[in-house]
Amino acid sequence: MKRSLIIILVCLTSLTAFRFVQSDKKAFYKALSSGQEAAIDQALADLEKEKTSSLTNAYKGALTMKKAGFEKGVKVKVKTFKKGAFMLEDEIKSNPGNAEYRFLRLAVQEHAPKVLKYNKQLDEDKRAVIAGYGKLNNDLKSIVSNYAKDSKVLKETDLK
Length: 160
Description:
With 160 residues, the protein is mainly alpha-helical. It has one domain (26-159). It has helices spanning 2-34, 37-49, 54-67, 74-94, 99-111, 122-132, 138-150. The N and C termini lie far apart (50 Å).
């Protein structure tokens, strides 16, 4: 009886955490695309409260790279960008087939200043996103599809 209760509690906790991450996914992408420092800072603060996971690390990495654009001074901008890039790259290295992480890197690469030379995996990431698109949940498919409407790299027709 006691063992069954523990198993049920663990399952419920896991499902609640999963649902929370899913609903926060929209908030994360809204902050990432907003171009507003306050939204990025809030999303980073929210992620800091979460249990560390591959997903939270990838999200923190992407947001940190985006935040670099708001920093003062070239050295601080580059240092902040590299910190975020290291986080995201580490998660991609550990999960090379994760289409969402590849999408994050593609989006950052497409908008990163050329001087950073952070654009070498655009084609590789595009192929990974296209290959994994069908396995994404509907919310993420919608996010990727909306991104493709304005992207110069990833086109809506690629996702059909």
